[in-house]
Structure formats: C-alpha cells, structure tokens
Amino acid sequence: MEVDDGDADDDWDPQVAPGVVLRPHIIRWTPDAGEGPGDGKADNLDADPLHDPDADDQDEKWVADQLLQPDTSNVKTTDAVLNCPGCFTPVCYQCQRHEQFTRQWRASEVRNCIVDKSAALSMAKDDPAKYFAVRCETCNADVGLQDMDGIYHLFHVLESLA
C-alpha cells in the first residue's frame, strides 16, 4: 500500500533561473497638480465634525473620578490598567505591581470579573490559606485569584500603561 504524502499534485517549483532578479515594486506618490495648502482640500482634514479635541482630557477625568479610589493621602494612582488576555476586556483600573514578581498585580477591586467560590484552592497541601479563582465575565478566562481577605492577585492579564 502506497502512502500519499499530499505532494503528488504539487507543481510548484521554487527554483529561479540564473539571471532573474526579483525586485520590489516601489511607487512614489506625488500629489496631483492643484492640490496643496491653498486649495482647501487639506484644510478639510482638520474640520472633522466628529472629532472632539477635548475628549481625551474629559475621558481621563471621568476615569479618575469614577474608577480610581483615593489612597490614605487622598491620591488616586495606579501602576497599570489590566485587561483580560482572552478578550481584552478591562478587568482592573487600579492596581499595585507586586514587589517580587514582575507579572503579578494586587488589587482591592476588579471589574468585569466573576469570583468562583464553589471551589477553594490552596498553594500547598497543609496550607490553611484558601484562594478562589477569578475569571473574566466576558470570556470566562482565568485572570487570577482572590484570597480570604478579599484581595485580588492578578497574574494572567495584559498590562497597559495607566
């Protein structure tokens, strides 16, 4: 019995004849005559009716007011904004980077997450500390653990700059 390796009908021959040189096709773009700063076409690019130049500042202020909690000295800071690796949904807006483990974060509050308290997890067989799985509410991906004190330890997340 002969085994078909799938290449029997393959007619592709990657050998190039001597003297053939493959060069990329580069086309240089130049504006048409009559287009320029004084004809009004370039000026229309700045007049986007849907663009709000103050939107970024307003969004930043809203996040600071609504999503960040002040610390003991009434300062609202975060080391990163954390997102689910499965669907990029934001799961934490205010967190603290772990001192020893560079890819681990600690938070007192998460968003768009479900804590599975049906099964307690432990780090060692005789360890009295119990942890609960924290999953993304959108795609059900595991993103971290919650300890018995209610602190979230997030380590399977994507970090974005705050």
From TrEMBL:
Region annotated Disordered, chain positions: 1-58
Record field: compositional bias (Acidic residues): 1-13
Source domain of life: Eukaryota
Secretion signal, residue range per the UniProt entry: none
Cellular compartments per GO CC: nucleus
InterPro entries associated with the record: E2F-assoc_phosphoprotein (IPR019370)
Record's compositionally biased regions (Basic and acidic residues): 38-53
Protein name as catalogued: Eapp protein
Gene that produces this protein: Eapp
